[in-house]
Amino acid sequence: MTLLKFLAILAALLGSPIFVVISGLALLSFHSVEINPSVVIIEMSRLADTPLLLSLPLFIFAGTMLAESNTSKRLLNLTHALLGWMPGGLAVISLMVCAVFTAFTGASGVTIFAVGGLLLPALLQDNYSEKFSLGLLTSSGSLGLLFPPSLPLILYGVVAETRVDQLFLAGILPGLLMLTLLGGYSMVAGRGIKKERPKNSAATIFRAIREAAWELPLPVIVLGGIYGGFFVAGEAAAVTALYVLIVELGIYRDVSLRQLPAIMVKSMVLFGGILVVLAASMATTNFLVDQEVPTRLFELIRQYISSKYTFLLLLNVFLLIVGSMLDIFSALVLVVPLIIPIATAYDVDLIHLGIIFLTNLQIGYCTPPVGLNLFLASYRFEKPVAQLYVATLPFLALLLITLAIITYYPPLSLFLVNAAG
Amino acid sequence: MRILPDGSRTFFSRCGQWCVWLEELFLCLLLTAMIGLACVQILLRVLYNSGFMWADPLLRHMVLWAGLFGAAAATRHGKHIAIDVASFLLPQKVQPWLRVAINLFAAVVCGFLTHAAILFVSEEAAYGGRALLSIPSWVLNLAFPLAFALICGRFLFRAIAEAVAIATAARPFPPERR
Does B67 sit within 8 Å of A238, measured CB to CB? Predict the structure, then answer.
C-alpha cells in the first residue's frame, strides 16, 4: 500500500495530472481502511452544496473573454495617457496593467502571454534595460492576485469556508503596498533614463478614456455590486460575465459570434481542470482530517514552536517551497485544509491567513528553480530560464519584504474588513 | 483498395467528431444557461422581490456538470493541471514512453473512479430521494460516472495513440527485449 502511494507521488512528479494522483491516493486511502470507494464520489458531490462555486466558471469565462479581446491594449493606452509623464512611467504602467489584468483573468499565465508580449518591446524602446524589463514582467505575471475578483481568492474562500466579500476587502491594502514598493523601485530604476516625456494633451487623455469607457465600470460592477449589497459573489460573476459578453461581442466587436463557442469551451476546459483537482482534494483532505492528521501535525509542531510568529515564519518558508512546485490552484486546495486547523490553534485569523497564503503562492510563481512564471516568460520572451532567474531577483527581494510586512502586520489585511464591519 | 478499413476508419472518426461536437455544444449551452439563469434570478429579486426556489440548487448542479465535462474536454486537449518539470529535465528519448505510462496510469485511476461513481449513483438510485424539480438525485449525479468514463476512455486512447506512434517510429529497429 505504501509502495502504491509512493508510486502515485512519483507519477505526480513525472507529470501525471494532479487530479489523477490525488484521487488515486484517496481511493487507496479509503480502501486501506476498508471503506466503500463510493465515499470518494460522495465527497466530490458535496461540492454541489457550495454556492460560491458558481462564481468560478463565470469569472473564468469573463476573464477569457477579456483576454481574447483588445482589453489589454485599451487599458495600456489609457494608463499611458494618464501616467506616461512620470519618471519610470512605463514601468509603473506595466505594473498596474498587469495587476488589473491578473485580477480579472486569474493567474493562468495569460498576463505574461497577452500583456507581457505587448509591454516588453515598449519597455525596451523606452530604453529600460533588458534585465530590468524581463524581471519586471516575469514578476508581475502574477501581480494582482490579491485584488478582487481574482480566482485564487475565491478558491481560498471555497476551501476555507470564509466569507469571500471579506477576502476581497482584505486583499486590497496588501496588494496596493506591493504595487507601491515595486512602483517605487521602478521609478528609481527609470530615473536615469533620458527620454522626452511629452505631456499628454487633455484631448489624448479624453480619447483614451472614451475608448476604454465600456470596460472601466467592470471593477465598480464587481465591488459596488457586492459591497452595495446588491448581490453575492456568484451573482456578481454572472453580471460580470453577461456585461463582458455584451460589451466585447456587441459594442467593441473584438470577438465575433463565430469565435464565441471556442472561447466558451476554452473557459470551461480551464474551469474543468480546476474543478477536478478541487473535487479530488475534497476526498483526500476529508480522509486526512478523519485520520486526525492536522491534529497530530499540530501536536508535533507545538513541541518545537510555541509562538504564533515563529509558526508564521515556518509557514512562509513552507508555502514558498510549495508555491514554486505546484500551481496556485492545486496548492490552495491541497494545503489550505491541512493548515487551517493548525493556524486556528495558533490563533491566526483565517482571512489574514488567506492573504498570507496568496502572497506566498504568488511569490512562489517566480521563485527559482521551478516557479511557473519563469518558464512561461522564458517561453514567451525566448530567453533562457537562467537569465530570468537573475533578472527577477531584485523584484523577488521586494516581494519578500511585502510578504514579511503582510505576515507580521495583520491590520494591513484586516483594517478594511473591520472598517466594513 | 483498402475499402473496408478505410470506410470503418472514417466511420469511427466521424463518430468521434460528433461526440466532440455534442460535448462542446453541451458545454456552451450549460455556460449560457448558467449566466442567463443567474441573471434572471437577480432581476426577479430586484424587480419583484421573488425568484425561483429551484434555481440556486439547479445552478450548483450545473456548475458540477460543466466542470466535469470541462475536465473531459481538458483531457482531450491535454490541458490538465500537472507538475511540468519532467519535460524539462528528462531526455527527449524517454519522453514518449513516459507519456504512455502516464496516460495509462491516469486511465487506470479514472477507471476506478468510474467504478466508484457507478456504485455511488446506484446507491443513490436505490435510497436517494428527489432533489429538486422532482428530478431524482441519482440523475443529477450522473455527471460523475459519465464524465469519468469519458475521461478514462480518452486517457486510454491517448496512451494507445502514443504507443502506436512509438511503434511506427521505431519499426526499422524493433526493440528486442524479454
Answer: no
In degrees and rounded to multiples of 5, residue B82 shows phi and psi of -150, 160
| Mutation site, A16, A18, A52, A242, interface B, largest B CB count within 10 A | A16
CB A262 within 8 A of CB A230: no
**pLDDT 10s digit of each residue in chain A, 421 long?**
678 878 888 888 888 898 999 999 999 988 888 888 888 999 899 888 888 889 899 999 998 898 888 888 888 888 888 877 777 788 888 898 889 888 887 766 778 877 888 888 888 888 888 999 999 999 988 888 999 888 899 999 989 989 888 999 999 999 999 999 999 998 888 777 766 666 677 888 888 888 888 888 888 888 788 877 777 878 888 999 999 999 999 888 888 899 999 999 999 998 999 899 999 988 888 888 888 888 888 888 888 888 888 999 999 999 988 888 788 888 898 889 889 988 988 899 999 999 999 999 999 888 887 778 888 888 888 888 888 889 999 999 999 999 999 999 999 999 998 888 7
What CA–CA distance (Å, rounded) separates A3 from A370?
27
B70–A264 C-beta distance less than 8 A: no
The whole-angstrom distance between A212's CA and the closest CA on chain B is 24
Kindly provide the b/e burial profile for residues A36-52, where b requires at least 16 CB atoms within 10 angstroms of the residue's own CB.
Answer: ebbbbbbbbbebbebbb
**Rounded Cα gap, residues A252 and A246, in angstroms:** 9
Residue with cell 519597455: A123
The predicted complex's ipTM stands at: 0.88
Residues of B in contact with A272 (CB under 8 A): 66-74
What's the pTM?
0.87
Kindly report the length of chain A.
421
Contact B84, A370 (CB under 8 A): no
Q: What 3-state DSSP class applies to A275?
A: helix
Q: Note whether A273 contacts B24, CB cutoff 8 Å.
A: no
Interchain contact, B35 vs A271, CB within 8 Å? no
From A116, A40, A94, select the one nearest A283 (Cα to Cα): A40
Give the number of other CB atoms < 10 A from CB of residue B95: 14
Grouping H, G, I as helix, E, B as strand and the rest as coil, residue A70 is coil
**Distance, in angstroms, between B42 CA and closest chain A CA?**
7
**Interface mutation target, options B22, B42, B59, B146, chain A, most CBs of A under 10 Å:** B42
